[in-house]
Design goal:
It contains no helices and nine strands. With 112 residues, it is mostly beta strands. The protein has a domain at 38-107.
Length: 112
């Protein structure tokens, strides 16, 4: 616990009794690290646009989940690539290379 003492001055300029201040510990919010999540290093990262259609972009996130139309997922890791079929929105469809080798969608904004 961290304690501090403050000297308060009233409206008329007179000193008031010192007041002890306490810093209350704050719990951090729980972090989800499950399916559909992105783990990233410091950004900002590139957001794939429509003019990137057909380009093979490099993943800059530590992990980037690829969602397939059949409901299954796989994970691309930093440095692996993704060919953009349709960019310009929050989700990008394309082909995931690396350890996935499948077509699917990824969250946009995690490319180098």
């Amino acid at each position: 616990m961290l304690a501090a003492t403050a000297l308060l001055v009233g409206c008329g300029g007179e000193e008031q009794a010192p007041e002890a201040l306490e810093e209350v510990p704050v719990a951090t919010a729980p972090q989800k690290d499950g399916e559909g999540s992105v783990t990233a290093m410091a950004g900002p990262y590139y957001y794939a646009q429509t003019w990137d259609n057909g380009k093979r972009l490099t993943v800059c996130a530590n992990d980037l989940t690829v969602h397939r139309s059949n409901g299954s997922t796989c994970t691309l890791t930093y440095g692996q690539t993704f060919t953009v079929y349709s960019g310009g929105s929050e989700w990008v469809s394309g082909h995931a290379w690396g350890n996935c080798g499948v077509d699917g969608q990824v969250q946009n904004g995690w490319f180098c």
